[in-house]
Design a protein that fits this description.
By secondary structure, the protein is an alpha+beta fold. It is built from 11 helices and 8 strands. Helix 2 packs antiparallel against helix 4, helix 4 runs antiparallel to helix 6 and helix 6 packs across helix 7. It is elongated, with a radius of gyration of 24 Å.
Length: 248
């Protein structure tokens, strides 16, 4: 069984999120915005803003994993409703934290104030994303494999060989090495739909360039991939045989 260190499991996105969390936490602790400079000392502001920034980033990542994008794109009203719900949840969590930290914190008035602040930040973020989003034609023109490989550290980006699902992570194997990324197999397969490869098992996707042959063992079909055996599910056996791979 392959084991990975924590360093290998920290994807570029995870490292970016950790860096943002650290910078926001330290920066807010030093400057003390929204009255926290007078209300709390430095060692009080640091954990306070670490919790606020961490909770915000965690909630955003949970929303990203839930992938509500398709549902939101159907209507502007749905987009606004989702933004309102997100803002209420996030401001509610901060409001509860303020109740614990600040004596005499006004629950309803405080929640309303925080909801307004979160809504303002959401509006700025949404406007920025809309302003700097690349044209749809440019996004479609990008090679799907190249776009997928951007999730890997630069040193591991080479021609894609295979992908293997391991719990909530994906083991991505390229000619330059291997890396772990936090992503679902279904999302990876959808992103690589136009790439030259296929999903051969619910836990395995293989690039055509890496397929070296087939072998059968006790009635089970295996795909030979760069010195490794990858199982082929019954549902995919016909498609694999149609590729004309040699039986070893």
């Amino acid at each position: 069984m392959i084991r990975f260190t924590m360093r290998e499991m920290l994807t570029p996105r995870a490292k970016t999120m950790l860096a943002i969390w650290a910078l926001v936490s330290v920066g807010a602790a030093l400057t003390g915005p929204f009255g926290t400079y007078d209300a709390l000392g430095l060692w009080g502001r640091l954990p306070y803003w670490a919790l606020v920034a961490g909770g915000s980033i965690l909630l955003s990542e949970l929303v990203r994993r839930a992938q509500p994008g398709r549902w939101m794109r159907k209507s502007l009203h749905r987009l606004l409703a989702f933004g309102l719900l997100y803002g209420l949840v996030l401001s509610g969590l901060i409001n509860l934290l303020n109740l614990l930290v600040f004596s005499g914190w006004p629950f309803w008035r405080g929640w309303l104030l925080l909801a307004g602040l979160v809504a303002g930040v959401e509006a700025l973020a949404f406007s920025g994303l809309r302003l700097f989003r690349p044209p749809a034609a440019a996004v479609k023109a990008e090679n799907p494999e190249a776009a997928f490989l951007k999730r890997l550290p630069p040193s591991q980006r080479g021609p894609l060989l295979r992908i293997e699902s391991q719990d909530h992570y994906l083991l991505v194997v390229t000619t330059a090495g291997r890396a772990m990324i936090l992503m679902r197999m279904g999302d990876a397969v959808a992103e690589l739909a136009a790439a030259d490869g296929m999903q051969v098992h619910r836990s395995h996707w293989v690039a055509r360039r890496a397929m070296r042959g087939l072998r059968r063992d006790n009635g089970r079909l295996w795909l030979l991939v760069e010195g490794e055996d990858v199982p082929v599910s019954r549902a995919n056996q016909a498609a694999i045989r149609a590729l004309g791979l040699e039986m070893r």
